[in-house]
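Example 3.2
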Amino acid sequence: GGTETTCYRITVAGYPVTYETGPFCPDTITDSADAGGIWFDGNGVYDLDGEFIVGLSELYGDDNWLMYDDDGNVLVTETAEEFEAAARPDVDPSLQNHCVEGRLEWLDNGEPISTTVVIPVQPVLADEPATVRGNLGVTLDGVVIAASAPVDAILGAYTIAAFDDCGGHFNPFDGYHLHGAVGCSEVDEVSEGETAMFAYAMDGFPVHSPLDDPASADLDECNGHETEAAGYHYHANNTAENQVIECLVGQTVAATGDAAAPAGGARPEPQEEVGTQ
């Protein structure tokens, strides 16, 4: 740490500029996959359709799962108050066995929650890779990549914190954010043998979509490698793993002060900051 470097201070809009969020939860147990989003838990990626809702007790080996009523309607958070009471570690007992979904209009003033990040213009290697605390990076279309979703706590409360098909969802504190790399934020060209870039990690290195065969790419412990065309970059994990990036090889800089210019991925002028690992 302590390296002085030039950084971008970026205010991320908190809502994607390249796609619409949702849907999240299905309405009934007869709904197809088109009616809902996805769920991933570290072991697999599941379509949030009616069949998934019916099969929760079998999937997780617990007969206490029952997320629909006698008429086949899925129990979903239907108000801002229910959303706030369910999208937290201490889920209100009345909202157990609910599919939890948020909406933009349920956030404060019905507006996205912006986040300011500071990212090195030229990444500075750390002495050794470090596990990520807090946000992992930002997508090119203006969404924060969050750390792993707390799956054990979510399932322990008999809830499903539904993601949309782009791997994101809302919570009352952070707004819309991503937990999985599904490909929706790819807005960059692809070089031969590579996948598209879709984000920058907090240390300034690019993040590309998952590889079909990561074992053949000689990735390091942080899921990164260097190529002639793209330089050093990370590859996101498979969505099922609920961990977009394993660790960071570069130093990061803590954001301070108020936000700079608005952004869905826009870059303001560089500012001098002090990097800390």
